[in-house]
């Protein structure tokens, strides 16, 4: 058991609190019994389990350990003090994992009818990003495309807020030019959320291969981003605040897409018939 | 100008970081130019403006000050260092206010047709609470009822997440027994959100005087709380996560109520006509 907080392996793990280090090594630190269990169940690529036997008392935790043993995952036993020094949260539960970040290359993503994705431009807050991953999963989306960098989904706050969805949603990062080329080639309907759109999010046509595009918390979508969208939708606001939380806005639109899909599971090909005297 | 961080008035303001102190004195500390402006515009009861002239450079800030002067609000000038010692955020903007908390007694609330409220039982996270206030405002709700204590809407994190809605929404706190007595007497339709309800939030009847009831992040609604509800609704989830963020769940239901109201602004009295051969 490692009892020194200045042990080299401990220091290397602790360094994962910094994004630069996570980016360079392609790793992340996942804490908590439920989060580690979800990672295992989602076939996350686990480099190492970190356990503090003193803290690890629940049956769930022991089951997680047993499972990790079966799968031949390396265990690092540390003292309570060392575990605390690695932890980003109050009341550490004694179980954590170092996992390999999983990213899917954009050019490996092909869209099928019925698929839906979220795309976020430069999202700033890791808590918002985690919440959006959680809702994307719940609303049946396939994944989230992170455009123009922004918050790190492997940030401890994002991982925690995602409640496991960071392991189940496909994660893609891309610059704007690659995204637009991909979206055009994939037959995606890109629907941007923006305050001043004339169509509300409830009245829009999301197509059969949907990418919902959301701007950053402060800036929203740029002119060029709006121009690229096939449709723009607004979420009506009836009070005095001038915007919604980004996670809330993403969730309202993601759920609307889900409900529209479920109301008409096999959308007809998008042909428009010119109005006749009879239908006008 | 006060330059000592141990000045008595400065210490008394700094103490408002603690909930106990806020509760005892009925005060809160509001930071940031926009937040203070919203407080002034919402006729918040401002006890004191705190300014750090060194930090306060923007035209908006000067306009806020001018307005405060016109309304005869007391100014406390402090050094940059003192302001930093009061601040709960990075990059303090040099303008803050001590305001009197505003609570509305439950027995002063009468429901009219068309009114909608949110009620939260023991919400734990001040960020979630602030987000819910923000969405409540945007969705046209009148206010938020906080049941069985829980997070403080006057917590700096809640104030910030509310983006001003803490000043515009009516805030009520009550215990469960007072709430049920009030709801019954007011003709409220209390609709509880819970995972295992058979009706989805899109298919429910929210009545004409709606109170949407949400449980705490961890516990959800208790058996007794569910029993009291006129209807229970679930938000469908299609992925692997087993719940939504509380702010997201509240927002989906609050917006659904808004959309239903706007689709039929004057709901007819709830009479059900038995189906005839012709309509069956």
Please explain how this structure is put together.
The structure is a homodimer of 280-residue chains. Chain A folds into two domains: 8-100, Ribosomal protein L30/S12 (60s Ribosomal Protein L30, Chain: A); 106-263, SPOUT methyltransferase, trefoil knot domain (Alpha/beta knot). Chain A contains eleven helices and eleven strands. Chain A is an alpha/beta fold and 280 residues long. Mean pLDDT of chain A is 92; it is low at 267-280. In chain A, the strands form two sheets. Chain A has a seven-stranded parallel beta sheet, with helices on both faces. A four-stranded mixed beta sheet of chain A has the order 1-4-2-3. Chain A has helices at residues 8-14, 19-25, 33-41, 59-70, 80-86, 126-138, 156-162, 165-168, 176-186, 223-228, 246-263, and strands at residues 27-31, 46-51, 75-77, 95-100, 116-121, 143-147, 170-174, 189-193, 199-200, 210-214, 231-234. Chain A is elongated. In chain A, α3 (33-41) runs parallel beside α4. The A-B interface holds A 38, 42, 127, 131, 134-141, 161-165, 168, 202, 235-245, 247-248, 251-252, 255, 258-259 and B 38, 42, 127, 131, 134-141, 161-165, 168, 202, 235-245, 247-248, 251-252, 255, 258-259.
């Amino acid at each position: 058991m490692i009892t020194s907080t200045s042990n080299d392996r401990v220091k290397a793990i602790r360094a994962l609190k910094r994004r630069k280090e996570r980016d360079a090594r392609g790793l992340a630190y996942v804490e908590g019994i439920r989060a580690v269990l979800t990672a295992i169940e989602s076939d996350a690529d686990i480099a190492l389990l970190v356990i503090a036997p003193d803290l690890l008392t629940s049956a769930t935790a022991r089951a997680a350990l047993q499972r990790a043993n079966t799968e031949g995952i390396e265990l690092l036993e540390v003292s309570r003090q060392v575990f605390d020094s690695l932890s980003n949260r109050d009341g550490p539960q004694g179980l954590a994992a170092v996992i390999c970040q999983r990213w899917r290359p954009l050019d490996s993503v092909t869209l099928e009818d019925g698929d839906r994705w979220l795309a976020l431009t430069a999202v700033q807050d890791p808590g918002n990003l985690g919440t959006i991953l959680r809702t994307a999963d719940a609303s049946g989306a396939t994944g989230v495309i992170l455009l123009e960098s922004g918050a790190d989904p492997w940030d401890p706050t994002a991982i925690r807020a995602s409640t496991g969805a960071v392991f189940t949603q496909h994660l893609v990062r891309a610059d704007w030019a690659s995204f637009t080329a991909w979206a055009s080639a994939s037959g995606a309907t890109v629907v941007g959320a923006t305050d001043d759109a004339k169509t509300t999010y409830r009245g829009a046509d999301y197509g059969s291969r949907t990418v919902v595009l959301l701007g950053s918390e402060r800036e929203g979508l740029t002119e060029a981003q709006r121009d690229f969208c096939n449709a723009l939708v607004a979420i009506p606001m009836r009070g005095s605040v001038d915007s919604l939380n980004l996670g809330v806005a993403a969730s309202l639109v993601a759920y609307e897409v889900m409900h529209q899909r479920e109301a008409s599971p096999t959308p007809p090909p998008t042909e428009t018939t010119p109005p006749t005297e009879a239908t006008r």
